Amino acid sequence: MAPPVPADAAVETAAPAAVAAAAPNGLARKDVPVAAPPISVVSKQTVRPVGASAAVVGDLRLSVSDMPMLSCHYIQKGLFFPPPGVAEASLASSLAAALSRALGVFPVLAGRLVTLDDGSIVIRCGDDAAVEFRHAVAPSLSLGDFLVPGADVPTALTNALFPMDRTVSYGGHARPLASFQLTVLGDGAVFVGFVANHAVVDGTSFWHFFNTWAGMCRGAPVREPDFRRNFFGDCAAVLRFPGGAGPAVTFDADAPLRERILHFSAAAIRELKATANRSKRTGQDDSSESVVNGKVTHDARAHGQGVCREISSFQSLCAHIWRAVTRARRQLAADTTTTFRMAVNCRHRLRPAISPLYFGNAIQSVATTATVAELASSDLGWAAAKLNATVAAHDDGAIRRAAAEWEAAPRCFPLGNPDGAALTMGSSPRFPMYDGNDFGWGRALAVRSGRANKFDGKMSAFPGQAGDGSVDVEVCLAPDTMACLLRDEAFLQYVSSSPAL
C-alpha cells in the first residue's frame, strides 16, 4: 500500500455534467436511454504545481530538436497495475497530491506554448500553470479485456484510457502541455495514463517525469531535471505558420490499422544476436557505440576510440522485424527502397555531452535504406550490420550537421509512411517503464499506448515486464500486411507469449 501523501496539492475538482440524449430541436429527451460508455470519467481535477521548485523558471525556448515535433500528436503512454488495495477515492486524491508535488519539480509541464513577436516559440510557466487529472471508471471491464494473449490490441478500449486524443503538439498554445487519467476497472485493477506534448518532451524526459511522479508516492529521492537550453546553443531559426494556423500531422490518422504486442524473450533475442554476428559479412564497419534497446549508447566493451566487433541485440531484433515486414508487404516491387527509421538519443553523443537529465527533446531520426531485393537475398547479419553502420556514423559531427541543415530550412518532422515501404521504431526497452514506476502498489503489469502517432509501419519497443532482458514490440501495420506477418513462420519462431499475460 502506498504511504500517505500530504494533501497539499493545489487541486480544483469538478464532476462532469450528466449527458442526456438530444432531440432534433436540441432539447434533452428524457424518454431515450443513453448507453453508458465502457470507460467514463467521473471527475476532473485541475492540478497546479506546488513546492519550492515551482518558482518560475523563465521562458524556455524550443530547441532545434523540439520544434520539428510541433506537428506530432501528444505522447500517450501508461501502465496497468494490479488492484492497489487502496480505497478508490483515497487513491485518486493521493495521486493528485503526488502529481502536484512532481509538477513542482517539473513546472514546465504545467505551462503553455507562447509564440513571441519574432516567431520563436517558448514554454511559459505563468500564474495559471496547471494540468488536468481525470478519474475514470470501467465497471464492466477487467484486465482480461485489455491484455488478450495472441490477439490484436483492443484499441477501441485502450484509446479511451487517455485524454487529449489526437491533440497536435502545436495545440499546446491553448491547451495543457500534459494531462493524466486514472482508470479503475471492475476487477479493481487500475491504469495510470500520462499524456505529454511531444514538442516539450522526448521519451527520456517523459519517463523521467513519470518516474518522479511515482517516486513521490513512495518518498523516493528526486532526480532534478536540467532545464538549461544548452543543446546546440542559441538557434535563430523559427517555424512560421501562415495565418496563425498550426500544422497538422503528416500522416493519415484515420487509415485502417491492426495493432499487436509481440513478445521476444531474452533467449530469442540472444539467438537473433548470435545469428546476426555469425553471418555478419567480413569487413563490415562496426561501431564503438551501438543501438542498445532502441537508443544509442556507448558499448562497455569498446575502449576509447576502439571498435566494438559485435552487432547489438537490438540491432539484430530490428533487422529481423525489418526483413519480415518487408516480406509481408507483398505489393512492393523488388527494386523498391525500404527505410528503417529510429530515434537517436543525442545527449551523450554530443561533444561536450549534455546532461542525461536534460529536459526536452534531444533526439534525431536516422534512416537505414535497402531495396526489397537486397533484404530478401541477404541474411540477418547483413541487415543488422546496415543498421549498425547508420547509427555508428551519427556522431557529434553528424548531429550538428543535421541541426544546421534544419536551421537552414526549418520544417516539421515528416512522421509517417508515404510510400508504404517504411518502418519507424519509437520508444525504447531501456526506458524505466517498470522499474521506475512503482506507485507503492508493486510492479506494473503491462505498458500500453493510445492512438497517437500511429500509422502503417510504426513500432514501439518496450522492456519486457519481467525485467529479464525480454522485449515487447508494439507493431502497427495495414491489415493485410499484419495478416501476412502473422503467417510468417520464419518470423514467428522468435515470438512467444508474454509471461505477464
TrEMBL record:
Keyword terms of this UniProt record: Transferase
InterPro entries associated with the record: CAT-like_dom_sf, Sec_Metabolite_Acyltrans
Name under which the protein is recorded: Acetyltransferase
PANTHER family the UniProt entry points to: FAMILY REGULATORY PROTEIN, PUTATIVE (AFU_ORTHOLOGUE AFUA_3G14730)-RELATED, OS05G0449200 PROTEIN
Presence of keyword Membrane: no
One Pfam short name: Transferase
Organism for this UniProt entry: Urochloa decumbens
GO molecular function, one term: acyltransferase activity, transferring groups other than amino-acyl groups
Record SUPFAM superfamilies: CoA-dependent acyltransferases
